[in-house]
Amino acid sequence: MASDTTVSSLPSAVVHAQLWLRAKVTEPVQLPWISTSLHPLVLLTLVCSVLYLLTPPRTKKQRLVPNIPVVGVGVGGIGAARKRFLSESRDMLLEGYRKYGGNGGMFYVPSPLGERLMIPPKYVEELKSAPVDKVDFVATFIEMFEGKYTTMGSRSTLHPRTVKHQLNQNLINVMPAVEAEIRDAFAAQIPPCEDWTALNMADKFVQIVARVSSRMFGGTALSQHDEWVQSTINFATDGFIGAQKLKKTPVWLRPIASRFMPEIQKISHHYDVARKVLIPLLQERDKTGERPLDLLQWMKENAQGEETDYNYIAEIQLKVSFAAIHTSAAAPTQLIYDLCAMPEYIEPLRDEIIQALREENGKLTKQAFLKMPRLDSFMKESQRFNPLLLITFERLVTDDLTLSDGFTIPANTQIGVPTHAVTMDSTLYPDPEKFDGFRFHRLKSHDPIAASRQVYAASNLASMSFGYGRHACPGRFFASNEIKAIMVYLLLNYDFKFPEGQQRPPSLVVETQYLPNHAATVLMRKRTPEF
Ligand code: HEM
Fold first, then answer.
1. Which positions bind heme (predicted)?
2. Do 261 and 20 form a contact (C-beta atoms < 8 A)?
3. Nearest CA owner, ligand 1 atom 28
4. Buried b (16+ CB within 10 A) or exposed e, 216-243
5. pLDDT of 62-76, one tens digit each?
6. Pairing of strands 2-3, 107-109
7. What whole-number percentage of the chain has pLDDT above 70?
8. Confidence of residue 493 (pLDDT cuts 50, 70, 90)
């Protein structure tokens, strides 16, 4: 058995993130600048003045609605429960939903952000169209990723509106380039695998998806630009680790501590790379008049006012990579783990793909995708068990908000839907604990009218992995095609299995995130593809 020593001996940024989280979750942050040789009094005065200038206003206090239960509070009180949420949110959400959420009830889950109010579907319908300044999507994101320091989160509408319109209208037009990039990225990332070869596929998929996404963002000028591709990957990882470190630092110290954190410092380097690579590309297009079908060009053409500044477009393009790469790379990772754990699904999926491609002359057309309902179903079932986010539709209610039945959500309440727990509800999903890879395919065949509600990219009250309402993920249709194209390539070109004795590796809970395991390996062997 061979092993991929060149790459697997260099753990990726995400592995670092996971190892860091495991190791440091209880460690206080060390501040090297504290051990200075300045006189203690001078030091104290200096520190106090800087803190006075930099300390943010105190965050407003949350008011809990009486009679709504708070789950998971045990002997250690609310403080211990909030800490527990960091690594046990999945269990706490399942407990809350089973006890109180099932019949449209509400509950709070304690978390470091405060007690989050889990709301029932009837309120989601009403809140999905509430004014954005009252039910704030971006504020939650900024809080979650310490956006004030990491820059994660953006109130720009340039990228959501461009993804929603131009990208979604061109989904099939971008596919040939996506397919070509998948072939190149696999060739670059996966060794020959003539015999079974142990690979860390979680890392490989991050690299592959980063290249494929970059191809859609700006063609080969981006997908073959290694510095850009690595920055798109590390921008997210640095933001994620930086945010986790900051969360363990007292609020009043964050303005200073953030300046000394290597991850936060690296974020500005990623912006430098984005500007260095993207601005000349945009200027070149001005000169030649070239209008390629890619996101960068569509954003350039959609931009208005301050958005037309190429610095702005470059920064936003980097932020799109945060939304697109680790999210989409998680899916094939979870899928290969599921297929290794349940190899009985491999041949039926392969057969379906071969048949669909045969009927479409070997091309991944829109029709070809429609002829792969089992693959779509398997992807959705895999996401039901291992979604990237355990809570979605996260919003901050900024002012007291009274709903049509008279219930008032107090100002400064973080709301959300316990999406994963909802998909484990037996009234919505029969036998929910059973992994049934083709359940959505059967549902679609029995009820063709409701079929669109059962597809991977669907967003409805029973299926909110991509969120819901005006901020529902606009990239989900592209993600669905991209992940399918990767799985088609994988299933046609490789056999795969777990090393002897290895079980399906569990996902890692980090607050509301449920991350694919980056420590496991998969044995890969090349096969002769039919197409
Ligand atoms: C499997 C992959 C993906 C998952 C699981 C995912 C998930 C999500 C979720 C849960 C939201 C928030 C929705 C809400 O709260 O209602 C979101 C928003 C967003 N996603 Fe995705 N996403 C994925 C891929 C992508 C891709 C490939 C792109 C870009 C091409 C993208 C672009 C965005 C943007 C721009 C937003 C913000 C929408 C807004 O501000 O209104 N996502 N995504």
1. 473
2. no
3. 475
4. bbbbebbbebeebbbbbbbbbbbbbbbb
5. 899 999 999 999 889
6. unpaired
7. 88
8. very high
472 CA distance to ligand 1 centroid (A)? 7
Structure tokens at 236: 């997210």
Q: With 70 as the cut, is the pLDDT of residue 393 above it?
A: yes
pLDDT band at 27 (very low <50, low <70, confident <90, very high): very low
Query: Where is 108: in which H helix or E strand?
Result: strand 107-109
Please write the tens of the pLDDT for every residue from 332-345. Answer: 999 999 999 999 99
Is the beta carbon of 479 within 6 A of some atom in ligand 1? yes
Residue 293 CA to chain centroid, in angstroms?
A: 25
What ipTM does the predicted assembly reach? Answer: 0.99
pLDDT digits (tens, 9 = 90+) for 340-386: 999 999 999 999 999 999 999 999 999 999 999 999 999 999 999 99
Could you tell me the residue ranges of all domains in the chain? Answer: 2-25+150-384+436-462+465-526, 65-144+390-423
Closest ligand 1 atom, residue 216 Cα: 30
Ramachandran bin of 114, using left for φ above 0, alpha for ψ from -120 to 50, beta for the remaining angles: left
End-to-end Cα spacing for the chain: 27
- DSSP-derived 3-state class of residue 494: strand
Residue 373 has, within 13 A of its CA and on its CB side, a CA count of: 12
Which residues fall within 8 angstroms of residue 39, CB to CB, at 6 or more apart? none
Distance 406 CA to ligand 1 centre (A): 32
